[in-house]
Design brief:
By secondary structure, the chain is mainly beta. The chain has one domain. It contains one helix and eight strands. It has an eight-stranded antiparallel β-barrel with strand order 1-2-3-4-5-6-7-8.
Length: 133
C-alpha cells in the first residue's frame, strides 16, 4: 500500500489492540521464527474476537504490517468480504490479498494459533502479543 496513513493511538476507539503474530513451529520451521509475522492494529471485543461493527466504523485504522527478518515487507489493511471472510489487503486488486482462515472465529489471545493464506498455502502463526496501542 503506497499511501500510508499514520494512526495515532489516542484517536483510536478503546476496542483497538496491537496484536503480534509470529511464525509458529512447523515442518519447515521446527522452532518457529519470531522474525517473521504480522503486526495487526484491530478492534477486538471483550472476548478477544474481531469486532466487525467496530471495524466497519474505523476500517481505515485497521492496519496490517507483514515483517520478515525483522523488517517491514508490506503494509496493508484488514478488510472483510461481503460473506464475512477477513483478509489482508496490500495493493489494489486481489492478487496479493492474504486470506485469514476462519479469522472471524479465532480468538486473539496469547498463545493461540492463527492461519493466513499466502502464496497458495496456509501458514500458521502464534499470537505473541495482545496489548493496547
Amino acid at each position: 500500500m503506497k499511501d500510508r496513513i499514520v494512526v495515532k493511538a489516542q484517536e483510536l476507539p478503546s476496542s483497538f489492540h496491537h496484536v503480534r503474530l509470529v511464525l509458529a513451529r512447523g515442518k519447515d520451521h521446527p522452532e518457529g521464527d519470531r522474525e517473521e509475522g504480522y503486526d495487526l492494529l484491530v478492534p477486538l471485543n471483550h472476548e478477544g474476537f474481531l469486532d466487525p461493527l467496530e471495524w466497519k466504523k474505523s476500517r481505515d485504522a485497521c492496519r496490517v504490517r507483514y515483517f520478515r527478518d525483522g523488517k517491514t515487507a508490506r503494509i496493508g489493511l484488514l478488510r472483510r468480504k461481503p460473506g464475512g471472510q477477513w483478509y489482508f489487503d496490500y495493493e489494489p486488486g486481489d492478487r496479493d490479498d492474504e486470506i485469514g482462515f476462519r479469522l472471524g472465529e479465532e480468538c486473539f489471545r496469547l498463545g493461540e494459533y492463527i492461519s493466513v493464506g499466502r502464496e497458495g498455502a496456509f501458514v500458521t502463526y502464534q499470537v505473541a502479543r495482545v496489548e493496547k496501542p
